[in-house]
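[job 4471] stage=fold_predict status=RUNNING
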Amino acid sequence: MRPAICSFPRAILLTDFRNGWLYEAGIGENRALRVADGELIAVRVERDRAGAKLGSIVDAQFTELWIAGRSGIVTLESGEQCLLQPLPKGLTEGATVRVEIVREALDEKGGQSKRAKARPAAEGSTLQRGPSLLDTIEASGEPVRTVQAHEPDMLAAFGWNEAIEQAETGRIDFDGGSLLVSLTPAMTVIDVDGPLASFELAKRAAKAAALVLTRFDIGGSIGVDFPTLEAKAERTEVSTIFDIHMTGKCERTAINGFGLMQVVARKTGPSVLEVMQADRVLSATLALLRQAERTRETGAMRLDVHPAVAAKLSDRPDWLDNLAKRTGRTVSVEAKGDIAIYNGQIAPA
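[job 4471] inference complete, writing C-alpha cells
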C-alpha cells in the first residue's frame, strides 16, 4: 500500500477543490488527477520518453513498404521507426515524408515494444512537438490547479495512491466484487469476480468497468468477461448500465451468452496501467522520489532501497540532484537486499 502523504485535514482539502484537474510536476514523472463533484474521475502519468509524442509533426524517411499502397515503415531523425498508414501516392523508398504521430509507441512487459503509428501530415503542416500532459489538460477547458511538493498532498487526498496501486496490480475492487485487468499484446482483458448472484454482480461490474476505462485511459481492443447471463433481457440491462457510465467514445458488441463483451476505443498511447506495469522498478523508484520530496524533515537524507532501485537511481544521477535541489538536503542511497522493491525507506543520513 502506498503511503498517503497528506499533512492537511483531508475534509478541508476535499471541500477546497471540487471540479477540474490537479497537476504535479514531479521528478522523472508528471502527474494529473481529474475531479468531478469532488470525486476522482481520471489519473494520468507522463514520463520522460525517447519516442515521438502524440500530435508531433515530423519529417521521416520512407524505409520499407509493407502493404502496397496502404502501409509502410518510416524512420524518424532519432532512429525511431513508425508505421505509416495510409501511404501518400507516389511515395518511394528513401524519400522524405512529413507525418503526424497518431499513436505513441507502446512498451510492453518483457521489453518488447510496438511501433508508434503515423499518418501523412496535412498539406502545409509545420514541424511541431506534440502537446505535453499539462498542455492537454489545459486544452480541456476545465480548471487546472498546480500542486507543489511543499503544499498539502491534494492528489493523495483524492485517492491518487489507491488509484496508482490499482494500476500497478490490475485489481480494482468495487462493492460486491472486483475487476482483474490483464494486459496482453492483443487486447486488455477485464475479468469480473465476486460472491454475488450473477445478474447483480454483472450490473455492478458494468458500472465499475466503464469507470475504469476512463480512469486509466484504456483504449484499443478491450474484452470484458461478465458472469454468464442466460436471459437476453439481463444482458441488455447490463449493457445499458455500461453505456450510462462510459463517458469516452467507443464501440461495443452486445454481451454474448458466455458473458463476453468487446469494446473498441481509440488508442493514442499507453494506458496508465501499461505505463505503471511496463517497468515496475522504475515505478517504485519514482514513487519513492515523490515521497522523499514531500518529507518535512531537514538535514541529510538517505534512501534505503532494493538493489534494483539503487541501480535505477545510479543510472539517473540527475534525479537525485533534482531531489537535493528541491528539498535543500543532501541525498545518499544505500542498497539493502532485505527491502522489497516498493518498500524503500527515507531516513536521516
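[job 4471] summary: DSSP finds ten helices and 20 strands in the chain.
[job 4471] exit 0
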